[in-house]
């Protein structure tokens, strides 16, 4: 197996931890894995992108243009920023929750709803999740990223037990149950 | 056991496995997490120093005492530590000394793009360059062997893509701690001119020996594939080359300085065309060409980062990718909701002062709507530059200009500038935005925080007493959320023909989460839509264009209480307030 996953969203959404979990699962399943991210200003509401590459042997930690197999967008419009990484077969996992950029919040720019609608159909497979609703159902609004991991797990060839094992290991013990629930809700159709 | 580690985590692990005893550093993206991870190893003494020069000297002292030591910094930090580096090259070491320096190609979070390899040549010390986390760990351990064998500090170069990427690493055990004892050797450690002249020769001889060592070292690797194209590369660039040019022959340099030219010549003889692929300066290329070895020219941009795509482009491999770029609303980094800097910046921009800024979260005060910063150069520059502005205008501009600097940056190199202002009879106004933490790099404690890197209680520097001790007579502490107080003190102090220091007294919301209180909301009955509150640039204050009213995202609001102070219509109130 060889898969390049681009995880995109907004600082504070838990993308760094989510991509760490994917790496651990890949290692557990016996693959070489590399990931790269720029998170200098991540805490302060910036745009965040994490490249995760899984194969028998990976060289560059950064995915070349046009080579992402899967784009996981933790926010509704963020995938639009990274269209140069997609090809005809790229799958999109989309969290439908919106986070307004400052210019939109100050009413100086529009949120590009139409553009999202237009582009999201241009992917080979589209899975949409209302992450916030599912996370709330699981018991904590902060578990949105785990919902998205569940959706990702569904389309990757790794054992579900591997995911559960890594999640248990990676998230703080008092929120393990909530996160497992969020993962299951993301995993279910 | 295997683990997926970032380059920085791997460097920390390498220090542990190499039996390092002392680590002293100053935080700086992308190098910060090395020392942050070292702190988890109880076997290693670790600390945050007030700046890189101090950190380097602490590590050098530990080496003099016979133990292995490390100091970590970002590229611009090495400028600050350059003074001891140049002479440590002459003294050499006792216990092994490694200096990890992290470059930032593309300047993701830096003010310049300098290539630290130039420092290896400048200081005449060896530099190793790992290309993934496994090598980060292995090369650091090797650095200590080289350091002790050749009596030299060793530079280990990282970059953002290595420090902040994660790859698989096989973990080892903690190695034996070396203990050479305190070295009392005056000709070696006292660099008066007579001794330094002798050491100068030693340094040159050492370079020759290091190049000889490099030739046979497994730090460098030759991968012969097709004889048509040979590529010399190092560091993370090797990964891009391997993926972009799978058929090329490669000389991968693990030691980028000094270079064994015998090795390069031998490689050159095995390939038809020789290329050098490197990021930033033409460092290897220049060195190699200067030896008369024929290198093909590549039309390479020396600015910014390389990538697999860019390497392909260099060799004329074109791929059809549909590069669609849309115009999207940006997500610039912003001062957090509840940031203690916001009130002071609002006051500065209201008074239209010229703010000489510095490096830290408060640099974000440059963004609209606050637009309060007029210059940013390097750590500590705000204080000294304001004095320059004052002197250049015979005191006139001192009534318009203020220096803004954070607590950590003030202690880093700002304090020297303040001494200079007092000593040389300047009029400048210096604002210390004391939020008790190094915010920008991810909240590391400093000498004003009251805790050490390990979270143990420590004495706290009192800026008021410090400023007075330097000789500043006018020192005022203000609440940055009290805008009227900020305006009043600012107006008064910039007019004063004497130096003054204004200190703000609210913590970064990450330094002290207990300051968070219940959120505010906008009373829609009273809001007139004047937009005054949106001008403080708080991410929690949003504008409803349909209703023509402001509203507050209560999940983001930290209850700092700044916005009700700018609303003249009493429309903003705290939840739960009677
Ligand atoms: S991290 Fe602290 S200092 Fe930096 S912007 Fe946020 S609140 Fe302000
Ligand atoms: S400052 Fe007060 S009146 Fe003006 S928009 Fe804000 S809440 Fe409304």
What does this 3D model show about the protein?
The complex is a heterodimer of chains A (189) and B (578). Chain A is of the alpha/beta class. Chain A has one domain (2-187): Pyruvate-ferredoxin oxidoreductase, PFOR, domain III (Pyruvate-ferredoxin Oxidoreductase, domain 3), CATH 3.40.920. In chain A, 37% of the residues lie in helices and 20% in strands. Chain A has helices at 15-28, 102-105, 113-120, 131-138, 144-155, 160-170, 176-187, and strands at 3-10, 32-37, 47-55, 70-73, 91-95, 125-129. In chain A, helix 4 crosses helix 5 (144-155), helix 4 (131-138) crosses helix 7 and helix 5 (144-155) packs across helix 7 (176-187). Chain A is globular, with a radius of gyration of 16 Å. In chain A, 52% of the residues are buried. Chain B is an alpha/beta fold and 578 residues long. Chain B folds into four domains: 2-216, Rossmann fold; 221-314, Rossmann fold (3-Layer(aba) Sandwich), CATH 3.40.50; 342-507, Rossmann fold; 517-574, Alpha-Beta Plaits (2-Layer Sandwich), CATH 3.30.70. The model of chain B has no long low-confidence stretch (mean pLDDT 96). In chain B, the strands form six sheets. Chain B has a seven-stranded mixed β-sheet, with helices on both faces. A five-stranded parallel β-sheet of chain B has the order 14-15-16-18-17, sandwiched between helices. Chain B has a four-stranded mixed β-sheet with strand order 9-11-10-13, sandwiched between helices. Chain B contains 20 helices and 22 strands. In chain B, strand 2, helix 2 and strand 3 form a beta-alpha-beta unit. The chains are: A alpha/beta (189), B alpha/beta (578). The interface between A and B is large, with 48 and 52 residues. Strand 2 (32-37) of chain A pairs antiparallel with strand 8 of chain B. Bound molecules: iron/sulfur cluster (SF4) (2 copies). Chain A: Keywords: Oxidoreductase, Pyruvate. Chain A: This is Indolepyruvate ferredoxin oxidoreductase, beta subunit. Chain A: Its EC number is 1.2.7.8.
């Amino acid at each position: 197996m060889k898969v390049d996953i681009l995880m995109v969203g907004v600082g504070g959404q838990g993308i760094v931890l989510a991509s760490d979990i994917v790496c651990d699962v890949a290692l557990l399943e016996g693959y070489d894995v590399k990931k790269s991210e720029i998170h200098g200003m991540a805490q302060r509401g910036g745009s965040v992108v994490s490249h995760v590459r899984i194969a028998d042997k990976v060289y560059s930690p950064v995915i070349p243009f046009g080579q992402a197999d899967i784009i996981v967008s933790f926010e509704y419009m963020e995938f639009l920023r990274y269209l140069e990484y997609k090809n005809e077969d790229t799958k999109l996992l989309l969290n439908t929750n919106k986070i307004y950029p400052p210019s939109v919040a100050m009413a100086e720019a529009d949120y590009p709803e139409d553009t999202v609608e237009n582009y999201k159909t241009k992917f080979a497979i589209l899975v949409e999740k209302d992450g916030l609703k599912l996370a709330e159902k699981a018991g904590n609004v902060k578990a949105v990223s785990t919902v998205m991991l569940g959706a990702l797990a569904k389309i990757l060839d790794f054992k579900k037990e591997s995911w559960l094992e890594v999640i248990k290991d990676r998230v703080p013990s008092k929120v393990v149950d909530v996160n497992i629930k969020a993962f299951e809700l993301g995993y279910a159709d | 056991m295997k683990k997926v580690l970032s380059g920085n985590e791997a460097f920390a692990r390498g220090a542990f496995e190499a039996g390092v005893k002392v680590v002293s550093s100053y935080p700086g993206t992308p190098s910060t997490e090395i020392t942050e991870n070292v702190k988890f190893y109880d076997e290693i003494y670790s600390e945050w120093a007030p700046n890189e020069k101090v950190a380097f000297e602490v590590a050098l002292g530990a080496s003099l005492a016979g133990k292995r030591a490390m100091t970590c910094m970002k590229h611009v930090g090495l400028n600050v530590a350059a003074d001891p580096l140049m002479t440590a090259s002459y003294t050499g070491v006792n216990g092994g000394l490694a200096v990890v320096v992290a470059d930032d190609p593309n300047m993701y979070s830096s003010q310049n793009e300098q290539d630290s390899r130039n420092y290896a040549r400048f200081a005449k010390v060896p530099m190793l360059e790992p290309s993934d986390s496994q090598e980060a760990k292995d090369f650091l351990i090797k650095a200590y062997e080289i350091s002790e064998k050749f009596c030299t500090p060793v530079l280990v170069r990282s970059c953002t893509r290595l420090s902040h990427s994660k790859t698989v690493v096989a973990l080892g055990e903690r190695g034996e701690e070396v203990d050479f004892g305190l070295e009392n050797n005056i000709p070696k450690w006292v660099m008066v001119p007579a001794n330094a002249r002798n050491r100068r020769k030693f340094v040159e001889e050492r370079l020759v020996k290091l190049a000889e060592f490099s030739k046979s070292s497994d730090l460098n690797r030759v991968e012969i594939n097709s004889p048509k194209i040979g590529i010399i590369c190092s560091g993370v660039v090797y990964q891009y080359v391997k993926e972009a040019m799978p058929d090329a022959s490669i000389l991968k340099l693990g030691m980028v300085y000094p270079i064994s030219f015998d090795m390069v010549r031998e490689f050159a003889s095995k390939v038809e065309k020789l290329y050098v692929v490197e990021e930033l300066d033409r460092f290897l290329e220049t060195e190699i060409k200067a030896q008369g070895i024929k290198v093909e020219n590549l039309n390479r941009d020396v600015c910014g980062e390389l990538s697999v795509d860019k390497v392909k482009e260099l060799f004329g491999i074109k791929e059809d990718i549909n590069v669609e770029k849309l115009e999207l609303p940006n997500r610039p980094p912003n001062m957090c909701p509840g940031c203690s800097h916001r009130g002071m910046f609002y006051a500065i921009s209201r008074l239209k002062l010229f703010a000489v800024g510095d490096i830290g979260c408060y640099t974000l005060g440059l963004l609209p709507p606050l637009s309060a910063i007029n210059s940013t150069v390097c750590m500590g520059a705000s204080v000294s530059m304001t004095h320059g502005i004052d002197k250049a205008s015979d005191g006139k501009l001192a009534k318009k200009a203020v220096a803004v600097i954070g607590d950590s940056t003030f202690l880093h190199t700002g304090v020297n500038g303040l001494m200079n202002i007092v000593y040389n009879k300047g009029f400048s106004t210096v604002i210390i935005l004391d939020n008790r933490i190094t915010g920008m790099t991810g909240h590391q404690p400093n000498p004003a925080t009251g805790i050490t890197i390990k979270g143990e209680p420590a004495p706290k520097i009192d800026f008021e007493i410090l400023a007075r001790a330097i000789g500043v007579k006018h020192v005022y502490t203000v609440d940055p959320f009290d805008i009227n107080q900020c305006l009043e003190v600012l107006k008064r102090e910039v007019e004063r023909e004497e130096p003054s220091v204004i200190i703000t007294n609210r913590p970064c919301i990450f330094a002290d989460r207990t300051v968070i209180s219940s959120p505010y909301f906008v009373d829609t009955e009273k809001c007139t839509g004047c937009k005054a509150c949106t001008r403080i640039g708080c991410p929690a204050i949003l504008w409803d264009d349909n209703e023509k009213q402001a509203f507050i995202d209560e999940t983001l609001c930290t209850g700092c209480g700044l916005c009700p102070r700018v609303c003249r219509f009493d429309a903003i109130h705290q939840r739960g307030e009677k």
